[in-house]
Amino acid sequence: MSLVLDAAAQDLLFREARTANTFTDEPVTDEQVRAVYDLVKFGPTSMNQSPLRVTLVRSPEARERLVQHMAEGNRPKTAAAPLVAILSADNEFHEELPQLFPHFPQAKDAFFGERPVRESSASLNAALQAAYFIIGVRAAGLAAGPMTGCDMEGIRKEFLDDDHTPLMVVNIGRPGPDAWFPRSPRLEYEQVVTTV
């Protein structure tokens, strides 16, 4: 059976998409970011907990502070990208569950009363949402440069609070010259899928 999604969309979202390393100076607007979010917010999470939080780094002062927390090889990319987003997990996501999971509002306390349980669930589900976010950036015709090469604790202290755990930094914009490294190999179906 073939995929329903047309080949051009498959290429845009997956086959031709790569982590961008350079960007043009064309701005990324708030409207573009809102359109990305308004699409990817529909991606599923466990019990609809939706723990991803996005911090947009727009001001030159904030960008300079962020660059200091990036690994040496990632600093020029983060300094030059039109927009940078810090994606984090909200460890207090359960406070929103009465709204997000209204058919079982008791889930907030029944399942997520303990902080370690919340942190584990928030990390997994926000990482899932971060993947949706990257695909949404691609769907907007932009390129994403997600990175974990940074001082996460420093970023948390600089931009977040104790209730948020940073997951990655994503550079966003139109790809610039020599934006892509060569495509790395992928595992084949038979190497990944087992039938029992």
Order of the strands making up the biggest sheet: 1-2-4-3
- Topology as a string of helices (H) and strands (E): HHEHHEHHHEHEH
Mean pLDDT: 96
Total strands: 4
Instruction: Give start-end ranges of low-pLDDT stretches.
Output: none
Morphology? globular
Quaternary organisation of the protein chains: single chain
Could you say which structural class the secondary elements and strand pairing correspond to? Answer: alpha+beta
Strand content: 5-15%
Biggest pleated sheet: 4 strands, antiparallel
Helix content: 40-55%
Terminal residue distance: 22 Å
Instruction: Tally the helices.
Output: 9
Measured on Cα atoms, how large is the radius of gyration? 18 Å
Question: What is the fold's blueprint, element by element?
Answer:
Elements: H1 7-15, H2 30-40, E1 52-57, H3 60-67, H4 75-80, E2 83-90, H5 97-100, H6 107-110, H7 115-139, E3 143-147, H8 152-159, E4 164-173, H9 189-192
Antiparallel strand pairs: 1-2, 2-4, 3-4
